[in-house]
Structures are given as C-alpha cells and as structure tokens.
Specification:
alpha/beta, Ribosomal Protein S5, domain 2, two-stranded antiparallel sheet, 8 helices, about 20% strand, globular, Ribosomal_Su5_D2-typ_SF
C-alpha cells in the first residue's frame, strides 16, 4: 500500500494571532451585547411613617388617642432596574465603581416570580404581611390588645417587607412616645430598615449601603440597621449619619429613648 504524506501547512505568526483572535472577538461581542443576570440599583425614596404619603396618613389609629408627634421616622428603599430590563456589560461597568450605585444579582433583587406582574403581586403580598406583623409587634410591645386598638397602615408604591421595623416604631411613637410624654424621635429625623416578626425580632434586608445614602439625602442623622448588616451599612456610610444596630423592637425603642434623653448607652456598629 502506498502512503502519501502532504507537506505541513504553516501559518505565519501574524496569521496565527489573527485566527486565534477571532473567537476572542466573538466572545467579547457576545459579552458586550448579551443581557446579563444583574439588576442595577440606586438609593430610592424614603417616607416618614409618622406623616403622610401622597396625601394619606401612613398610620391611622382608632380605639385609642394618637399623640401629636415631632421629628420623623423615615423608612428607606432602593430603586432597581425592572425584572424584565436588559442589563449589558457596559451598564455593569458604568455602575461598578460608583458609590451611589450597586450591581446586584437579579435573583437577589427579584427572588420570586418571572414576570413583572408576578413580582409586583408577590411584593404587595409581602408588604401586607409586613404591615400586619408590624402592628402585632407594636401592640404586643405596648401591652395593647389588637381588638381594642385598630391600626391601619398605608404606603403607596412600595413593596416588600423591609419597612416592618419603622412601621412598628411609628405605631409606638403615635401611641406611647418615649413612655414619659416625649417623642420617641426626640425631634430628630431618624431613618432605618429591617423586617420584623410578631415577637418583635428584627431581620436583615438588602441594599443597606444604598439606603443609608437615601436616608442622609432626606435629612436623617440617625439610621437604625439590623445588627447583622452593620458592616454593609458602614461600607459607604455618608458623613453625618450615625448607625444604631438593633436586633429587636425593644432594642430599637430603648436605644431611641436613651438617645433622646441623653442617658444610658446607645449601641454602635
């Protein structure tokens, strides 16, 4: 049998580099133009739970006399690109090094549901649960019976459970203040975040570093943060904003009373 060997075909160095570069260029093109599984977030709106939101009082109490309060208790939010937004590499690179922006995994921002409607419904349900739990925790803290005192919470265009702590504090301030005739806020603008359960336990939330920026932008000088998220809150902490870590509603009330009266120890991160 005859074997015939062909002469090896050789590429010049420049030709070889050109051929190797083709798949790299293709991958870069895909990376630049393909949507990525991220959401872009920034500081969102804040709302004073002791006041009104879009013309309606956030807290309405019947069955007991509500106090006139001074100061503010501001719940905080983040704004993120929608669940159906297409985020590309250029968008990520633009926001990556900005202190007033964050690049977050989409699943961390929208863990439930695939469509905009599903996510909106889920967030609305979580907000309703948070409000009911906040009322229960606040009335239990004050030793009030829910059948005797009725509390209605209303906050438009906000979803999720992270305003629970501030709702509870607002109810406590409206009904009892600092317990001796003064305001729980001491006349300050106080902001914060945190979920709450029926026993008054405060839970962690997301986007704390962005929420501190929203709080300071809107005049807050004190920020209540779930203790587990102290390090996150300190990451981009705005000048002039004091962090107070909390683990329970009782902790939060006690810290604000100590701050207002200038007595006792106020915890710090």
């Amino acid at each position: 049998m005859d074997l015939r060997f062909s002469r090896p075909f050789r590429l010049s160095r420049s030709q070889a580099l050109g051929v190797c570069a083709l798949p790299v260029v293709a991958l870069l093109a895909v990376a630049v133009f393909a949507p990525l599984p991220f959401s872009l977030a920034q500081p969102g709106m804040t709302a004073d739970v002791l006041g009104e939101n879009k013309g309606d009082p956030v807290i309405t109490i019947s069955g007991a006399e509500a106090r006139e309060t001074s100061g503010q208790l501001r719940m905080t939010t983040i704004e993120a690109t929608g669940p159906d937004a297409r985020v590309h590499l250029g968008d990520v690179l633009d926001d990556w090094f900005r202190t007033d922006r964050a690049v977050m995994p989409r699943d961390a921002v929208y863990p439930n549901g695939d469509s905009v409607r599903e996510i909106e419904d889920y967030n609305a349900e979580e907000m309703k649960k948070s409000q009911d739990t906040a009322v229960e925790a606040a009335l239990d803290h004050l030793g009030e019976e829910s059948g005797d005192v009725t509390v209605t919470l209303k906050l438009a265009d906000v979803g999720g459970p992270s305003a629970g702590l501030l709702f509870s504090l607002g109810i406590v301030d409206k009904l009892d203040g600092d317990g001796s005739g003064g305001d729980l806020t001491g006349g300050r603008v106080i902001a914060g975040t945190g979920t709450i359960d029926a026993d008054g336990k405060v839970g962690a939330v997301g986007g704390v570093a962005l929420k501190t920026q929203a709080a300071r932008r809107d005049g807050a000088t004190v920020f209540l943060v779930p203790k587990a998220e102290c390090s996150d809150a300190e990451t981009e902490l705005p000048k002039g904003l004091r962090l107070i870590p909390v683990t329970t509603l009782k902790d939060a009330v006690g810290s604000l009373v100590a701050l207002e009266k200038g007595r006792g120890q106020v915890p710090a991160c």
